[in-house]
Design goal:
This protein has two helices and three strands, in the order βαββα. The chain has about 60 residues and is of the alpha+beta class. It has one domain. A three-stranded antiparallel sheet has the order 1-3-2, with no helix packed on it. A hairpin with a 5-residue loop joins β2 and β3. The model has no long low-confidence stretch (mean pLDDT about 85).
């Protein structure tokens, strides 16, 4: 597990749109860092989420 202390919030950008909880598996990718925040509710009462993603850090093995 990655430590969130190693990542600056300046490195995050918001994914367009709002998402429902069950859509997270379709949006999130392995080995990425996400910040997920409440973003209100849909007209039908379903909670909506805003998703922010950080660019992955370069792999030290790839840089060599």
């Amino acid at each position: 597990m990655n430590s969130t202390a190693d990542i600056s919030l300046e490195n995050y950008h918001r994914l367009p749109g709002l998402y429902r909880r069950w859509e997270l598996t379709e949006v999130c990718e392995p080995n990425r860092n996400y910040q997920i925040e409440d973003a209100g509710t849909h007209a039908d009462g379903t909670p909506l989420l805003a998703i922010y993603v950080a660019q992955p850090a370069p792999d030290v093995h790839e840089a060599a």
